[in-house]
């Protein structure tokens, strides 16, 4: 089996080739990636994590996920939206997260905008899923990982709308990663055990 068409791991299950032998990656792949998420708290968590990931590998962020949970008030959007300059400095000194001032400030701005969307649409979930035809996950027919696009017209559309609203670190590639992570799109290989 080629690396691109799937990865046969120690437990003999075929997984998407990016789900390496790292147990954290395998658990995330099997239990979260591509599974539909409608809970605003989890959607906010992925908004924070995907923004932090910009320019880095996902495993880098995944390994720091619990640190992010502590640093960002358990991903409580109301608390993050109320972060002050003192909180920014606290986060800049937190070795457990990516200490990038633009990303930290972006997360706080995004929290405030997230709340605005909740007020406008009833929930962030309703807003995000309203972009998806029929509000149902898009089931892509992925035969090999090189078939997975880095962005789509839909991620362009969502990203454009969110940028217009002022969101930071949510370009079309990050948007598409967010869509994959929250199951708006299923990009698991057709042969993958987690499909």
Automatic annotation (TrEMBL):
Report the GO molecular function annotations: DNA-3-methyladenine glycosylase activity; metal ion binding
Q: Which domain of life is it from?
A: Bacteria
List keywords of the entry alphabetically: DNA damage, DNA repair, Glycosidase, Hydrolase, Metal-binding, Zinc
Presence of the UniProt keyword Hydrolase in the record: yes
Q: Which reaction does it catalyse?
A: Hydrolysis of alkylated DNA, releasing 3-methyladenine
The catalytic activity of this protein is classed by the Enzyme Commission as 3.2.2.20
* One Pfam family linked to the record: Adenine_glyco
Read off the Gene3D superfamilies from this record. Hypothetical protein, domain 2
Q: Does the keyword Iron apply?
A: no
Q: Which GO terms describe its biological process?
A: base-excision repair
Broad class of enzyme this protein falls into: hydrolase
- Chain positions recorded as Zn(2+) binding sites: 16, 29, 188, 192
Family matches, as PANTHER family? DNA-3-METHYLADENINE GLYCOSYLASE 1, DNA-3-METHYLADENINE GLYCOSYLASE I
Protein purpose:
Hydrolysis of the deoxyribose N-glycosidic bond to excise 3-methyladenine from the damaged DNA polymer formed by alkylation lesions.
Q: What is this protein called?
A: DNA-3-methyladenine glycosylase I
């Amino acid at each position: 089996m080629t690396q691109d068409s799937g990865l046969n791991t120690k437990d003999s299950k075929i997984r998407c080739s990016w789900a390496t032998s790292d147990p954290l990656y395998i658990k995330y792949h099997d239990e979260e990636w591509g599974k539909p998420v409608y809970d605003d708290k989890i959607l906010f968590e992925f908004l924070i994590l995907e923004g932090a990931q910009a320019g880095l590998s996902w495993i880098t962020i995944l390994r720091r996920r619990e640190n992010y949970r502590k640093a960002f008030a358990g991903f409580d959007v109301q608390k993050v939206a109320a972060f002050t300059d003192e909180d920014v400095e606290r986060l800049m000194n937190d070795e457990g997260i990516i200490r990038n001032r633009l990303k930290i400030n972006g997360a706080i701005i995004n929290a405030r905008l997230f709340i605005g969307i909740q007020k406008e649409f009833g929930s962030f979930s309703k807003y995000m899923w309203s972009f998806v035809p029929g509000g149902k996950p898009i089931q892509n027919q992925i035969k090999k990982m090189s078939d997975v696009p880095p962005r789509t017209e839909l991620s362009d559309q969502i990203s454009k709308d969110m940028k217009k609203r002022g969101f930071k670190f949510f370009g079309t590639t990050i948007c598409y990663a967010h869509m994959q992570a929250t199951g708006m799109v299923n990009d698991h290989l057709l042969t993958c055990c987690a499909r």
